[in-house]
Amino acid sequence: MNPILERLRGGLIVSCQAYPGEPMLDPRTMTQIALAAVEGGAVGIRGKGLDDLRAMHAALDVPLIGLVKVGHDGVFITPTLADCLEVAATGAGIVALDGTRRPRPDGLSLAATISGLKDAHPDVLVMADCGSLADAEAAVAAGADVLGTTLAGYTGERPKTEGPDWEVVDQIVALEALPVLVEGRVHFPEQAAEAMRRGAFAVVVGTAITHPTTLTRWFADAVGGAAATA
Ligand SMILES: CC(=O)N[C@H](C=O)[C@@H](O)[C@H](O)[C@H](O)COP(=O)(O)O
Questions:
Q1: Which atom from ligand 1 is nearest to the alpha carbon of 208?
Q2: Cα-flanking dihedrals φ and ψ of residue 97, to 5°?
Q3: Ligand 1: which of 76, 161, 183 to mutate, judged by most atoms within 8 Å of the beta carbon?
Q4: Is the CB of 68 under 6 A from ligand 1?
Q5: Which of 108, 166, 177, 195 is 20 to 30 A (C-alpha) from 133?
Q6: 174 CA distance to ligand 1 middle (Å)
Q7: Where does 3-229 sit in CATH, by number?
């Protein structure tokens, strides 16, 4: 197996992302969070944005999954071949891209996007962020190296479940086609363990580890809710 994937097998990957307008949107901050996650046992980091990825690549010695986000509707995760090439140029060993069957903004198919990326960066691996079983099947045919359940609940094809979309996890694992990274709404350690029991190759956790604004809101809402019923 590819040595980058071998390092991720059976482990936890931590997604370190801040969004436009947020106080932590800063490459140094995100890199420090990534380093802290590695200290806690993360075997890989998923990062967003070219500046963050360059800083993380320089500081980390674990595999880096890179992406850019362009907008937040439709195809927004590393949507074009040009975006993929820019992400690969940061040094990220795995490029995560939208792996759905939706039309891409540059008009290229997923297969053409993957082959264009691999022509320029033969060693780079491609993680296809999928929203459904049909996406995963198409991504396998298009030449992806790894499948993610990242977009289940975000494309309109699947309901947005409270936790991970276990049905889609089971379906994609049952394909037995490529390593499956379970990503999306893994909020508790028990869910990460459950993902492994269901055949995940590795688990990706973002919000529940690296997004303090959301975490604070969970607690603040709980406190406020308790006050309202007191
Ligand atoms: C749908 C989408 O845009 N997902 C993004 C993909 O990179 C990130 O916003 C998520 O934080 C990441 O997938 C990890 O998921 P969670 O934060 O639920 O653990």
A1: 19
A2: -135, 165
A3: 183
A4: no
A5: 108
A6: 23
A7: 3.20.20.70
Choice from 17, 48, 83, 168 to test ligand 1 binding pocket (greatest atom count within 8 A of CB): 17
Cα-to-centroid distance, 224 and ligand 1 (Å): 26
Alpha helices in 9-108, H assignment, sequence order = 27-39, 50-59, 81-89
How far is Cα 92 from Cα 124, in angstroms, rounded to an integer? 8
Six-digit token pair at 82? Answer: 């040009």
Query: Helix axis angle, 50-59 relative to 27-39, nearest 10°?
Result: 40
Task: Please tell me the distance from the alpha carbon of residue 94 to that of residue 31, in angstroms, as a whole number.
Answer: 17
Does the pLDDT value for residue 203 go beyond 90?
yes
Radius of gyration over every alpha carbon of the chain, rounded to an integer in angstroms: 17
Tens digits of residue pLDDT in 59-98: 999 999 999 999 988 999 999 999 999 999 999 999 999 9
The overall average pLDDT reported for the chain is: 97
Ligand 1 centre distance from Cα of residue 56 (Å): 18
Cβ(113) – ligand 1 distance below 6 Å: no
pLDDT digits (tens, 9 = 90+) for 97-107: 999 999 999 99
Three-state SS at 145:
coil
Confidence of residue 227 (pLDDT cuts 50, 70, 90): confident
d(CA 142, CA 46): 22
Q: Give the C-alpha separation, 56 to 34, whole Å.
A: 7
Q: Which of 64, 203, 207 to mutate to test the pocket of ligand 1 (most atoms within 8 A of CB)?
A: 207
Q: Is the pLDDT of residue 229 over 90?
A: no
